[in-house]
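Structure tokens please, single chain.
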Amino acid sequence: MDEREGWAELRDRRMGEPGAREAYQAARLAFELGRSVRELRQRRGWSQEELARAAGMTQSAVARFEAGGTVPTLPVLERLAEALDADLDVRVVPRSAA
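Here you go.
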């Protein structure tokens, strides 16, 4: 068995564990939110420190968030959006037209 087969088996086994899929989805969401904020910050030409100051956060908190290391609360997302002069749009959208 080569390394790729070993990794695929390990991944499949881990994804079958209770809560694994939910944890993966939370990590994906955190990463996507962090990427969106980083892109907006960079378009403004701001450093993480400048965004942190505008949002009332620490630079390290902004860095962790942008890296997808934390799942933010809605109030934190609101502060970041306000600091970036952006709208926060949280929606639940049906997957298919039923």
